Amino acid sequence: MGKILVTGGAGYIGSHCVLALLENGYEVVIFDNLSTGHIETVEKLKKYGHVDFVKGDLQNLSDIKSLFNLYKTDAVIHFAAFSQVGESVKNPQKYYMNNVCGTLNLLSAMLEAGVKKIVFSSTAATYGEPEYIPIDEKHPQNPINPYGQTKLMIEKIMDDYDKAYGLKSVRLRYFNVAGADSQGRVGEWHEPETHLIPNILKSTFSGGQTFKMFGTDYDTKDGTCVRDYINVEDLAQAHLLALDYLNKGGETNYFNLGTNDGNTVKEVFSACEKVTGQNIPVDICPRREGDPASLVADNTKAKSVLGWKAQNSLEYSIEKAYVWEKTLQKELINA
Ligand code: UDP
């Protein structure tokens, strides 16, 4: 099937994508600086197929160039990036240097090696404050934070590199990613954790902090923010379809990945109580800065062009996230 370079393959979404690639007969080279990803994840992934690991930083051009000298790769799936909105506002330099400059280095090494296909993890954050819901790919892209800006800049760079150098890209604009591997092999492991579902689940373990609900006065059906939660395994499948699309000669393109449906923070919280069987204590807090009231994807284009479908429910994602969180608490954090 070929060898795929996965940057950021030691991270949350990257690791699920590596498993999906291995299950579909690909060999994988993971390139990761382990700044937010984990070596334990790489070790686990190695059990399930042919995985090479190169520790390196995209900000060092020589790190990524030498990888292409060592391994003949057919395409790249590029996850490696910093992704915390709040941090990007406080420290934009970190984001522009890593996400934008790092990607420029990656693209330059790809061109030198003659690798001309890339699947890129973009984000709903490139749209900014929604002008209408659900958001389709024609929605204007006006990011409201440096994180979203970096991802949009990279999308534009990729357009120019296609025109000038014939580099073909598929940009996948993720909405809110949730869940964990259905067999419990990998899952979400951020330090510190900022995301809704793992934070609710973590609060149920001894020593966990009380869950903080940010903002109950939004103009939504129950006052809390609406998000479109897409299952991480469904998301990984979309990367395989994007790769097939490029392998079949598909033109540079971009797709929203979401479920066409939104859930409020309160609905997610109730679903977590149901899955865990616990009454979870909650602190009602002021709004978190920069949170739009609603973000829901229109995924029609991914369905019609890639043949992709979101299969797994929010409840299923929470069940798998809970299984993984128990593993994390037992095996990894307390190891
Ligand atoms: N949220 C919350 N408490 C938390 C983490 C998140 O109330 O500990 C809310 C957050 O304000 C937003 C929603 O949950 O309305 C989703 O946030 P998350 O950070 O998971 O994803 P984002 O939408 O920011 O990408």
Written account of the structure:
The protein has 335 residues and is an alpha/beta fold. It folds into two domains: 3-179 and 229-257, NAD(P)-binding Rossmann-like Domain (Rossmann fold), CATH 3.40.50; 196-227 and 260-296 and 312-334, UDP-galactose 4-epimerase, domain 1 (Alpha-Beta Complex), CATH 3.90.25.10. The chain has eleven helices and 14 strands. The chain has helices at residues 12-23, 39-45, 61-70, 85-90, 92-113, 146-165, 196-202, 232-247, 265-276, 300-306, 314-333, and strands spanning 3-7, 27-32, 51-55, 75-78, 117-123, 168-174, 176-178, 211-214, 226-227, 229-231, 253-257, 263-264, 282-285, 294-295. The strands form four sheets. It has a seven-stranded parallel sheet with strand order 3-2-1-4-5-6-11, sandwiched between helices. Strands 12-9-14 form a three-stranded mixed sheet. The longest helix has 22 residues, at 92-113. 47% of the residues are buried. Uridine-5'-diphosphate binds at residues 176, 194-196, 199, 212-214, 225, 227, 265, 288, 291.
